[in-house]
Specification:
Blueprint (H helix, E strand, L loop, with lengths): L3 H7 L6 E4 L1 H19 L5 E5 L4 H16 L5 E3 L31 E9 L3 H13 L4 E9 L11 E5 L7 E5 L8 E5 L8
Parallel strand pairs: 2-3, 2-4, 4-5, 5-6
Antiparallel strand pairs: 1-8, 7-8
């Protein structure tokens, strides 16, 4: 069973309260791309690595926006965290997902990890462990579409599309066109309700 961060994102589409529609997501990604460029002072030595599954298309979308501004194609890849999870012995086996590192590698680069929802922080901790086995970036930053709070580890996103305070019984679901039917972020469940 996926961890809370990915379980919320990989749930089947269902009725929920839409908190971000396609236009909101597009604006959030534009802002994130500009903030990354501003903080990095351009696109030099920048690498975007998406965390499967929805972090990967988000990384590609951010790279497209960076390219439109800078006229430079930022390398994009993905980093699978399956074998780095701290709940491997507690949950059923999961399929391994692709790790694709751009040809220039990540050594001495500024790596921006991209994910859809930041929740407990455990997925990001696993991604940091995975990066340590791949190379040694100069800096690692984190971009997320939604930060829903409830951190269990001292991890903070550098670039956030939307801070979305939630109850633990609510689920945040991200759907993206190309992977799902349409772009949307929804909240399912009600505070005080049961989430099984």
């Amino acid at each position: 069973m996926p961890a809370p961060e990915t379980a919320a994102a990989e749930a089947a589409p269902s009725e929920g309260r839409v908190v971000l529609d396609a236009r909101d997501i597009s604006r959030a990604l534009n802002r994130i791309a500009h903030e990354i460029l501003e903080r990095n002072k351009g696109a030099d030595d920048l690498v975007l690595l998406g965390i499967p599954s929805r972090g990967v298309p988000l990384a590609h979308r951010i790279a497209e926006r960076v390219s439109a501004v800078e006229g430079y194609d930022v390398p994009v890849g993905s980093v699978d965290i399956t074998m780095y999870r701290d709940d491997l012995r507690l949950k059923p086996a999961r399929p391994l997902l692709p790790t694709e590192i751009p040809s220039g590698g990540i050594d001495d680069k500024v790596v921006v990890l991209v994910d859809d929802v930041l929740f407990s922080g455990r997925t990001i901790r696993a991604a940091l462990d995975a990066l340590g086995d791949i190379g040694r970036p100069r800096a690692v930053r984190l971009a997320v579409l939604v930060d829903r709070g409830h951190r269990e580890l001292p991890i903070r996103a550098d670039f956030v599309g939307k801070n979305l305070p939630t109850s633990l019984v609510e689920r945040v679901q991200v759907t993206l066109a190309g992977v799902d039917e349409a772009d949307a972020v929804t909240i399912e469940g009600t505070p005080g309700g049961d989430q099984s």
